[in-house]
């Protein structure tokens, strides 16, 4: 029994050592590479402009609603109950329209981000894959990941940037 335990321990040690030697690890600063890509900078600018335009539309509608609310509040004592009720319904409709505009803006923003960043992510992933294959890396991990507990492998950031033609 004792011989079996010693043999098992020896086999585990040999397998562990051979697995550790067989794996070649590297890290890459994904955010650093992404932020250096001109395509991402342009996409960020386009998305910010899109978002600013949507926010301006929503603010315009909200300001118009606020102005009506103020006007209706001031005129309410002079109006009939039916008129005030109709005005309340109109203000409620404006609030619903603003909420719909916000929902639509959020969905449109997500769609625009998907369209803009999809090709950028593919280009980055292709470059990482090419560098990994050329350098013999079995794993490349994000250097900024919170899940990374220990980092000892080579850093592939410079090679990925070179592959993408950026400094």
TrEMBL record:
Q: Name one GO cellular component term.
A: cytosol
Which family is this sequence assigned to?
A: Belongs to the Skp family.
PANTHER family linked to this entry: CHAPERONE PROTEIN SKP
| Biased composition range(s): Basic and acidic residues | 71-86
Q: What is the lineage of its organism?
A: Bacteria, Pseudomonadati, Bacteroidota, Flavobacteriia, Flavobacteriales
Show the Gene3D superfamilies listed in the entry: Skp domain
Q: Show the segment(s) annotated as Disordered.
A: 64-86
Indicate yes or no for the key word Signal: yes
Species name for this entry? Answer: Chryseobacterium shigense
For this UniProt entry, the molecular function terms from Gene Ontology, in alphabetical order, are:
unfolded protein binding
What protein does this entry describe? Periplasmic chaperone for outer membrane proteins Skp
